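Good day; I would like, with your permission, to put a structural problem before you. What I wish to show you is a protein chain and, alongside it, a tokenised description of its three-dimensional fold. Thank you for your consideration; the sequence and its tokens are set out here:
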Amino acid sequence: MESTYEVDDELYKFSLVRIVGLMDRLISTPFTASSTAAEVLQDVDLTGVRAIVTGASSGLGVETARALTAAGAEVTIAVRNTTAGDAVAETIERSTGGIRPRVARLDLADLTSVTRFADAWSGPLHLLINNAGVVTGGLERTREGWELQFATNHLGHFALATRLHDALALGASDRDGARIVSVSSTAHMRSGIDFDDLHFERRGYDPQIAYAQSKTANSLFAVEATRRWASDGIVANAVNPGGIATGLQRNFTREQKESLEAAEAAGVFTYKTVEQGAATSIVAAVAPEFAHSGGHYLDDAQEAYTVPDDADLAQHPHGVKEWALDPTTAKCLWTVSTDLLSGRAAGLAFENR
């Protein structure tokens, strides 16, 4: 098939000049693309740390929950299917020598479920790992009429974090800081936020563009959450785990699979193991370099360099587009998200904190 990853040499040269000037200001860590979650946590003691990992019934979420538990954290696995969650908890218990995560039901596409989960939380929260994600092969909507990928990947996590703000603030005062990890993707480079038609009510539906929009939203959430909540000791960072074969791809259409194959062939990514993919989430969660610094986008365990919105994905697979870090867009998205949730859940106090 015709590749969509052709190189524009002039744009590439311009981008390189711009990037060279930014690289020396980026936050770096000792870890690399080949590091594993266990390696990041080597000699790290998380005893007393309370963590939530959403979507931990398969893939990256399982390894993230396992690694945190093995390091001593008190982990809650937040999943739609608690039977699957119980099976994961049992596996983690066996692998960690008797430490079993708690399992709680959470359906991010259902605001009632989000509210119930958050309201049941008691005490401090130190780590919120917004890991869950959904990919659809066609247009699906929530009961509110919201496009499902945006509703689940962004709005559900936004609602969860907002309702858990006080628990995170309590955790921050308890341990000198609390962190949110927002799992994004290289896919964010395909689309910014279309505020005129967030839910594809007028434009033609493209599931890849819808997914990309939701992943850009995940990054923008980290920017604005940090701006609003850093004074409470809470920081948020977005991460790109890289290319990992997980259950997320099970609903791919033929066109989506072909696009993924073309991206791999063009060198946009090489597949990682699940253990390697979870490493960047763990870096954002525990690395001292990000203890009090948020609003960043991490790739391969480092802060990623920023590229223009028209930059080519094939040339910058480890970059982050400006539209995913723009503070004005992030503030606007926060307001729009709050308004959407308030419209659906009047009286449930989704505050524009």
Remarks:
- The two ends are 48 Å apart (CA to CA).
- DSSP finds eleven helices and ten strands in the chain.
